[in-house]
From TrEMBL:
Pfam families linked to this entry: GDT1
Biological source species: Acinetobacter beijerinckii CIP 110307
Keyword Transmembrane helix: yes
PANTHER family reported in the protein's UniProt record: TRANSMEMBRANE PROTEIN 165, TRANSMEMBRANE PROTEIN HTP-1 RELATED
Location relative to the cell: Membrane
Keywords associated with the record: Membrane, Transmembrane, Transmembrane helix
Cellular component per GO, a single term: membrane
GO MF annotation list: metal ion transmembrane transporter activity
Membrane topology: Multi-pass membrane protein
Chief location bin: membrane
UniProt name for this protein: GDT1 family protein
Length: 192
């Protein structure tokens, strides 16, 4: 359960102001159909983070524990720095128009799945799965974290987006990534 709670909180904070959250806002404003948008985001995230978690767990079988600890620790610390760099969403109108022929659900699923590839939250999922023993709880936690950040974005839309303290949220998320990175090293070298 610890894996689930850490995964949920890290990804929920990492997603705040992220390009996929901005995409969710854009899709909600464009289609104005929150239920199919949310279902598509849930499915795209579950598949994407499921694959990422399996990959993260696989990495533990091919790298030595010593190398893996350093990669994980430096990865989490790198994510802390990345959290402080705001994301921007390019002009996605063309992409939405391209995929609109698949309907609200199809366009949202495709765009969200593609936008999540190489995103902070996907990389965090790989790192969390390598750090913890449970692919299932990490995948569930990161998916719930994504939904916690994106569901309000879809329902509220742009109305409150400007009122959220995104900078503060990013700093809190960065601090959590930093703590997890440092604790990975401390736990390995002092408590192993």
């Amino acid at each position: 359960m610890y894996e689930f709670l850490i995964s949920t909180s890290i990804v929920a904070l990492a997603e705040m102001g992220d390009k996929t959250q901005l995409l969710a806002l854009l899709l909600a404003a464009r289609f104005r159909k929150p239920v199919p948008i949310l279902i598509a985001i849930l499915l795209a995230t579950t598949i994407n983070h499921g694959i990422s978690a399996v990959f993260g767990q696989w990495i533990t079988t091919v790298l030595s524990p010593e190398i893996l600890i350093w990669i994980l620790a430096l990865g989490f610390i790198g994510m802390a720095i990345w959290m402080l760099i705001p994301d921007e969403l390019g002009d996605e109108t063309e992409s939405i128009n391209k995929w609109q022929r698949f309907g609200v659900f199809g366009a949202t699923f495709i765009l969200f799945f593609l936008a999540e590839i190489g995103d902070k939250t996907q990389i965090a999922t790989v790192a969390l799965a390598a750090r913890f023993d449970s692919v299932f709880w990490v995948m569930c936690g990161t998916t719930v974290g994504m939904m916690l950040a994106n569901a309000p974005a879809v329902f509220i839309g742009n109305k409150l987006a400007d009122k959220l303290p995104i900078s503060l949220i990013h700093k809190i998320g960065a601090a959590i990534f930093l703590v997890v990175g440092i604790s990975t090293l401390v736990q390995h070298y002092y408590f192993a």
